[in-house]
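Researcher: I'm preparing a figure for a lab meeting and need a structural model of a single chain. I don't have an experimental structure, so a prediction will have to do for now. The sequence is pasted below. Please return the structure as tokens so I can convert it later.
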Amino acid sequence: MGKIIAISNQKGGVGKTTTSVNLSAALGELNKKVLLIDLDPQASTTTSLGINRSLLYSTVTDVLLNHIEIEDSIIHLSDINVDVIPATIELAHLEIKLDIDDREYALSHKIQRIAHLYDFIVIDCPPSLGLLTLNALYASNSVLIPVQCQYLAIDGLTQLLNTIRIVQKQLKVNNKRLEIEGVLLTMLDKRTKAGWEIVHEIKDYFKEGVFDTIITSNVAAQVAPTYGLPVTTFAPRSPASKLYKSLAKEVVANNERR
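Model: Understood. Here is the structure written out token by token.
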């Protein structure tokens, strides 16, 4: 059964979507079978991969509302060896429309049908701790937390960690675990002292839970989504591409050890 990883941080602008897209693409380059689920109503992951939202026949919203089977929502992107379940702004209305008893488990119930088909399933979460993020956490085996190397970016981590602990306690009832895959330091400006201070502070707190790979600020990673491509395809020799490939190797190695 595939490893299900939620990319989550309730703060926006820390690199969740960039991490989701480029980690998935880099895992695909390692010949891993990868499914990327866009669970953010902003649908930035969908757009970043060049998928025209106005032409979509089905989305993750249709899956969660039982309008279609999850298998029928998957789009295969052969050029980057990644499968995608896309999203649109309609996902923002899910909390109103989803009328079932165990709403936090809606995605978990669906994803179990196809988890055996993949090595990794990556879920891009919205910048909040609402119903959608809870669905991602309850469905996942682990959480990867991107943290921007700026002071304000680490200010709200306590709230996320408390939410993770609540989910962990609930999942124990079902004999299921939710671990922290790792903390990923992003958008580091290597020229500034303040950025490195945040790096040291995060490493002091999370110890070995921090990835060795640090994603530095890079123009190629910012430009790639405008072409509907991950940076690993758009600029394969760029520093950003090399860093996401390094991250993918770390994720694979960590899971092989476990």
